[in-house]
Amino acid sequence: MVNPAAAAVVLGLLGLTYKALRPPRPKFCGSPGGPQITSPRVKLSDGRHLAYREFGVPKEEARYKIIAVHGFASSKDLNLPVSQELIDELGIYFLFFDRAGYGESDPDPSRTVKSETYDIQELADKLQLGAKFYVLGVSMGSYPIWGCLRYIPHRLSGASLVVPFVSYWWSCFPRDLLRQAFKRLPPRDRWTFRVAHYAPWLLYWWMSQKWFPSLSFLTGNMSVFSPDDLDCLNSLSQQPGVGEEKITQQGEYESLHRDLIAGLGRWEFSPIEIRNPFPEKEGTVHIWQGYEDRVIPYTVNRYISQKLPWIHYHEIPAAGHFLIFRNIHCDAVVRDLLLS
C-alpha cells in the first residue's frame, strides 16, 4: 500500500521539477500586458513579425544594400561605427533587424540555422531590396550568414562574417582542433554549451539556477575578454545605450537561450562543406577575426579559411572580440565587403 504522505512528497517534488524546467510563456510585443510595439515590423508567411531599423542613404537611392545581423544579447539597435563619409561615398543602405525572440521580433519556437536564414530572405523581399543583397553578421549573428551561404547563395552579392560564432560539434572538422579550441573556454562556458547541445530541454533551468555558474558573459565575468576588448567596452560604456532594455523583454529563454540552442544544436551542414557562391568572382566572402579574441577561437576560423580558399580571411593581431566597434576596423569590413 502506498503511503499517502510519501506519495504527496514525490508528487510535490515532481511538480517543482517540472516548474523549474519549464520556461515561462513569452511576453509577446503588442499583447495585453506585453511590451509595446515601437518599431516598424513586417509580417512573415508563418504569421510572425520581424522588427527592423533602416540606416544610411535612402533605400531607393542606394548603390549597395547590406542586411546586418546582430549577435548574442544584442538587437537591431546595434551601433556599427561606420563613418558617414564612407556611407555617402559608396551610397550604402543598412537594414538591421531583431532576430526571432529579440527586441520586438516575435519568438520562433522552431528556431534553427535554416529558419534564421529564411527570415533574412523574407525580410529582404518584404522590404523590396531586390534580387540580391549583401549580408554582414557579427559574432553569434554569423551563424545565419553561414545559413545564407548554404541555403540562399543565389540571393547574395557578398557576405562578411565578423568574429564568427563557432560550434564545437560541427561535422567534418578535426576532432582535436575543436577539442583544443573548446578547452580554451572558461569551464562555466563549456558546461553551458554542453547543456545547450546535449540537453536543450535543460537549458532554461541551467541558466536560471544559482548553484553552478553559467555563461561568463551574462554573469559579469570579465576574464573572458582581452585587454583590447576591455578598453573597447570602457569606451562603449561612455556612450548612451540605445534599446538595451528591449533586448530580452519578451523573455531570456526566447532570445538568449533559443539562440544558444539553435547555434549549438545539430546542423544540416558543416561550414567547410559550403561551395563557393561566387565561382565567377561576382562577389566575395570575408571572415574577420581578432587574434586576441578569447570568446571565439581564431584557430577554428583560420582552419575554415584554409579549407575554403575562396574566403578572404582577415586576422588582426592585436584585436579582440569587439573589433567591429573600432571605427578603423568597421570601415575596413564594410569597404572590403563592397569593393574587394
Description:
With about 350 residues, the protein is α/β, with parallel strands linked by helices. The chain contains 11 helices and 8 strands. The chain has helices spanning about 5-20, 85-90, 115-125, 145-150, 175-185, 185-200, 205-210, 225-235, 250-265, 300-305, 325-340; strands spanning about 40-45, 50-55, 65-70, 90-95, 135-140, 155-160, 285-290, 310-315. The protein has an 8-stranded mixed β-sheet, with helices on both faces. The chain is globular, with a radius of gyration of 21 Å. It starts with a helix and ends with a helix.
Major sheet strand order: 1-2-4-3-5-6-7-8
Largest sheet: 8 strands, mixed
Distance between the termini: 78 Å
What radius of gyration results from the CA coordinates? 21 Å
Mean pLDDT: 93
Query: Structural class, please?
Result: alpha/beta
Residue share in helix: 25-40%
Q: Specify the overall morphology.
A: globular
Number of H/I helices? 11
- How are helices and strands ordered from N to C? HEEEHEHEHEHHHHHEHEH
- Tell me the number of strands: 8
Strand content: 5-15%
Low-pLDDT ranges: 5-18
